[in-house]
Design a protein that fits this description.
This protein is mainly alpha-helical and 308 residues long. It has helices at residues 5-10, 16-54, 60-65, 79-110, 112-125, 131-150, 160-184, 188-196, 201-212, 214-230, 233-238, 257-265, 273-307; strands at residues 69-70, 75-76.
């Protein structure tokens, strides 16, 4: 039976104004906690990372452009690590992009029933595989394939190319899923208008759907690059871990910013120059992550303005 107004009055209920204030207070506190955590992380990394340049006497220019990372000899040139990070990131993105884009077109435009019910869930399963498993597969399969294909030129098989292949598989589900969402978000009216003008399906996909979804597709690519740029364990197992000098080619062993951090922090003494230099590598990683996020927001804002 429906409750009468008197029964509702008998119950002690919080006034609407007070309830609104409590809700605003709780949500505001959540926002404040997130903001404090982000600011504290940035401040901590910046404080430790900048100590290398302001207290330890290492020049920022020599740190960025130096071609030898040998902490035991007091040589802190981060350029080989930066080159290694960008090399595996860009290569893995180049490997992933055509596969992810083709898969997204298949799921959205060609076989949406099969794609949504079977293919996409299978792709998303790859996200749950731990990084160490990808590293083990790369160590036993990819490195062995490099030795078989390139022979002595590949050495042990560990190198930038091996790291890029493993990373390409790791970021594939991220880029594919976001690309599928980007194409699916294009209004059907665009497709119907293209068909009404006599365009074929592939002309519609190429000239209408992909162009309309371009901002979201760019966001998918940058999200994949962000994941690749910060990956550590799997890359460390297949790239070779050579930090001392610049890699001369894609088959040469190398190191990235993340692999140098994980291998160096365990041996660095707290407060030493090496310790602060490793924090400086972390500062570079943080700056690049913030840069990628800024690009995503810029692309998103331009895409929103375009559709308004």
């Amino acid at each position: 039976m429906a409750k009468t107004k008197e029964e509702y009055k008998d119950k002690k209920m919080m006034p609407k104004g007070q309830l609104e204030s409590v809700g605003l207070g709780l949500t505001g506190a959540c926002v404040a906690v997130v903001a404090i955590v982000v600011v504290a992380l940035i401040f901590m990394v910046a404080q430790q990372g900048l100590t290398t340049f302001f207290a330890d006497g290492i020049g920022f220019g020599s740190f960025i452009t130096g071609q030898n990372w040998i902490p035991s000899d007091g040589r802190f040139g981060a350029l080989p690590l930066i080159v290694g990070s960008f090399s595996v990131t860009l290569l893995s993105t180049l490997f992933t992009l055509p596969i992810a884009l083709g898969s997204a077109i298949f799921v959205v435009e060609i076989q949406p029933g099969f794609g949504r019910k079977i293919f996409q869930p299978l792709v998303e399963l790859l996200v749950g595989i731990p990084s160490v498993v990808y590293g083990l597969i790369g160590l036993t399969v990819v490195n062995a394939a490099m030795r078989s294909i390139f022979g002595a030129a590949a050495g042990t098989g560990a190198g930038i190319l091996s790291g890029a292949i493993v990373l390409a598989v790791m970021i594939l589900p991220t880029v594919t899923t976001l690309s599928i969402d980007a194409l699916a978000a294009v209004p059907n009216a665009y497709r119907e208008g293209s068909y009404a003008l006599g365009c074929t399906r592939w002309q519609t996909v190429w000239h209408v759907v992909l162009k309309s979804a371009m901002p979201s597709l760019m966001t998918a690519v940058i999200m994949g690059m962000t994941r690749a740029f910060g990956e550590t364990l799997a890359v460390q197992m297949v790239i070779g871990g050579v930090e001392k000098s610049m890699p001369a080619g894609l088959l040469d062993p190398a190191a990235t910013l993340t692999t140098a951090l994980t291998s160096g922090l365990s041996n660095a003494t707290t407060g030493s120059v090496e310790y602060h230099a490793l924090w400086s590598l972390g500062l570079i990683l943080l700056a690049m992550s913030l840069f990628f996020i800024l690009i995503i927001h810029l692309i998103g804002s331009k895409g929103a303005a375009k559709h308004d």
